[in-house]
Amino acid sequence: MKKLLIVLLVLIPLSVFLYQAMTLSLEDFPKRKIKLDDQELKVAVANNRNLQRQGLRNVKKLKGIDGMLFVYSKPVQHNFTMKDTFIPLRIGFFSAEGELVDKKIMEPCSENCKNYKSKEKFQYALELPQQSEISFSSSSKLLFTHSFQSCK
User: Fold this and answer.
1) C-alpha dihedral sign at 96, 98, 101, 102
2) Three-state SS for 77?
3) DSSP letters spanning 50-72
4) How far apart are CA 87 and CA 57, in angstroms?
5) What is the pLDDT of residues 67-123, one digit of tens each?
6) How do residues 118-133 score in pLDDT, each as one tens digit?
């Protein structure tokens, strides 16, 4: 019993340390300029599973960016959650052609969080703060001239 207690006392702090070390910060995301309609935006790009899983979790300020763009290699229909996200967000879901297919308002959450899902498949999802002057209209279109799959 004593050995088990010693092992637990070592493993619990170690696992907390490793979890925190694996958590990405906003600085770990590639940044790109895109256009939403006629507005140029600077966004952090989540173009792989690790970045997409992290998203804007635990971010309190966007630090020089307008939002986050989630990029998928093909159309998907994933759920988004606001677990451990501090900034109230709106999300626009866009087709491979950059056309808006759905949008949602998302609220911060810490437990028993709601899932937000597009009514249609999408290839890009753009998260913006609710307080932003930038918004989505039914005719919103994303424009970009470069690939996101090789962002560094």
Assistant:
1) positive
2) coil
3) HHHHHTTTT-S--SS-SEEEEEE
4) 9
5) 999 999 999 999 999 999 999 999 999 999 999 999 999 999 999 999 999 999 999
6) 999 999 999 999 999 9
Paired tokens of 39: 């507005």
CA 35 – CA 26 distance, rounded (Å): 20
| Residue 142 CB contacts under 8 Å (≥ 6 apart), including other chains | 34, 35, 36, 94, 98, 124, 126
Helix/strand/coil for 106: strand
Strands 100-106 and 89-94 turn out to be antiparallel
Q: Considering the entire predicted model, what is its pTM? A: 0.82
